[in-house]
């Protein structure tokens, strides 16, 4: 298979790194590199998704700029990852839109908010849109909300299946059932603990300068924890609605509200942390991604902010507008799940599975 410019550069860099091997203890990339018998498009897609962009190899590399070899694993592998996300994307007609990065996500957000504004106005009536309200379902019925997001979730799952199936096959993994459970467990532990964001020494990533920091790792953990708490709040609300016949809104001391508010705050703090890390990160360590990467963080931030604002807006004339904006943010987030940066977590998990599988052979 002919390789593109990014893959050719990744192969050049890995060839030099394989001869040096100074960074072998930094992360999973370099031991995995040493196990390859040849460098190809397939294993570059594996190695690039193993890279967590901690920056340790760049800080310690004797062949980095201004050396003529100009070795920069984090930036080149980030570009390779971005191309792999797009290459396997399903359906294929979405690929040009996704390549536009932030433009696609901004358009998705505006269109989603507009659709929900129209839906809320159509249900409640334009004249009553800004009337004081206490119940979401006065503005939009439960079946409509549940229907929109159920269909969206189905589309997301189908897209994930087709996209990740292509990546799984590309990095030459065998069938899922032929891989030992111990391999899956080790990969999941590495993914959940973000082991490869410790720089190989436990002190974290090199965002700027020569001193490592754990802020990137901690912020990621906060985002994941907040997201899971919010998702748990949705599940709890679904159980209250259908299992206990207790529709929203819920009081502050109920499980859906406690999980949702806590998750929203944790998610908000984590997103702010990630934005701060991105702001201070040495630009030599990153590739130009047209806002593709930051769009997920911003969508999560907006979703948490608007979600936390909803209970405060109950009984006011702002509830209808805020509900439409929040639901629009959530729908745009669903689109990111299918065709945005969110998929990087699954690509990375599959790469970790492939790495553990290679270790066991």
Structure description:
The structure is a single chain. With 361 residues, the chain is mainly alpha-helical. It is 66% helix and 0% strand. It contains 14 helices and no strands. The protein has helices at 5-20, 29-35, 41-50, 56-60, 73-87, 95-99, 102-124, 142-170, 181-193, 215-243, 255-280, 292-313, 319-339, 344-360. The chain starts with a helix and ends with a helix. 41% of the residues are buried. The model has no long low-confidence stretch (mean pLDDT 90).
What oligomeric assembly is this protein in? single chain
Stretches with pLDDT under 50, minimum 5 residues: none
Count of strand segments: 0
Radius of gyration: 22 Å
How many domains in all? 2
Cα-to-Cα separation, first versus last residue: 26 Å
Explain briefly what this protein structure is:
This protein is mainly alpha-helical.
Main traits of this protein?
single chain; 361 residues; mainly alpha; 2 domains; elongated
Give the topology, please.
Blueprint: H1 5-20, H2 29-35, H3 41-50, H4 56-60, H5 73-87, H6 95-99, H7 102-124, H8 142-170, H9 181-193, H10 215-243, H11 255-280, H12 292-313, H13 319-339, H14 344-360
